[in-house]
Amino acid sequence: MSDRLRTLLILFLTFKQGACMFPNHHWGDWNDSQLQPTIQKLMKGYNRYLRPNFNEGPVVIGMSLDIASIDAISEINMDYTATIFLRQRWRDSRLVFPGNESVSLDGRLVSLLWIPDTFIPDSKRSFLHDVTVENRLIRIFSNGTVLYALRITATIACNMDLTKYPMDRQVCTLQLESWGYNLQDVVFYWTRGNDSVKGLDTLRLAQYSVESYYTSVSEAVYETGQYPKLVLHFALRRNVLFFILETYVPSILLVVLSWVSFWISQSSVPARTCIGVTTVLTMTTLMMGARTSLPNANCFIKAIDVYLGICFTFIFGALLEYACAHFYTMQHQTIEDFHRDLLREFNESNGNGSIPIVSSSQPNQSVEIGSTAEDLTEQSENSDTKKHAGAKEETPGQGCDLSSVKEAWRRAASVFIVENPHNIDRHARTVFPTAFLFVNILYWLYYLFL
């Protein structure tokens, strides 16, 4: 029991002696009993509302960055979210103390010191991490140099050019400016040039890879004056492999699937129609899905839109090809049925052995079945005589105009006459794949190398 009383008495005397040595001055939310003796001396007469070198020249502030992560890059909002460690160094002659050591302070003591008013002008949202305490670091060196570091997460705007999406290359920036102090008050610089930025070389992103980066020093000009400005430029190259597997390969397979109908008989109407309509609808769904991750109101005609449009054109063309082939097949079948009916009627009747058969090139000429070569010659001579007689009856000017118009119309109509409708499918088997291959070569050469 006596030992416990002796220990309590010693602690009481020690606390009372310390209270007498350091008077209880207050520095904001802190008092002398909570600060080290060195900090007490430095804070005596210190005014945190005045910058260092006041009325003597600007404060030179060096900065460096560590990019901890780039969490998300959004094409819809055209921004990216990054977590960074921002370090600032400057010299405050009011904080010089003897010795060669440095003093690390609690981050909550930042309220006792002057700190730069650095901000990110392109930031949409940002916050300072505070788990388990506010992530700040204050370190004072004996020559008065102050190191101030903090960990922040910010969503920063990035203007993107999506013309070559998904084979695009985006250049984003991270800007640092002073809010209230102009160039006469503070000057910013990168402490080690491009080496002042760490973490981008080892950064791993879902859709992008960091291609290059560099730093620059410039000035921000506003109505209120010129302010110091530091800029980090970094280029992001999109990984196109994901989109090749997600969009390009399925669209190519749909185009190839639409060509299967060229090998199906034209009489199989349900089969060919089903393939054509199914591929068109599937391609439409694929086009809508490819646009869900992009801005709705977007003025860009993107590379993926061009390719999907090409594929949709070929698929729809395959459907139209069957419509044309089926039309000419039915037309050809109708003519054959007409000739067959005439032949059957001729066989059933006791006529003179002649039946008019309409020719595609000369519809007004008739041929007698069973006639000899001499009869055919006489018929041709008689038709020529009738043509000359008819030409004499007409006026020279009208005959020339009407004959030329009829000849032009006959030539134009002959273009749309198909002798064998099955040749349409036969030619489509070669034309469609060749044209699609040629368009693909032009597409990839343009968007990858131009």
Q: In percent, how much strand structure appears in the residues?
A: 15-25%
- How helical, in percent, are the residues? 40-55%
Count of alpha and pi helical runs: 8
For the record, the CATH architecture of the largest domain stands as: Distorted Sandwich
Number of strands: 14
The CATH H-level homologous superfamily of the largest domain: Neurotransmitter-gated ion-channel ligand-binding domain
The succession of helices and strands, N to C, reads HEEHEEEEEEEEEEEEHHHHHH
Tell me the count of domains.
2
Subcellular location: Apical cell membrane
GO molecular function: GABA-A receptor activity; GABA-gated chloride ion channel activity
Domain Neurotransmitter-gated ion-channel transmembrane: 247-444
Region (Disordered): 354-402
Summarize the structure.
The chain is α+β, with helices and mostly antiparallel strands. Helices cover 40% and strands 24% of the residues. The chain has two domains: 205 residues, Neurotransmitter-gated ion-channel ligand-binding domain (Acetylcholine Binding Protein, Chain: A, Distorted Sandwich); 129 residues, Up-down Bundle (Methane Monooxygenase Hydroxylase, Chain G, domain 1), CATH 1.20.58.390.
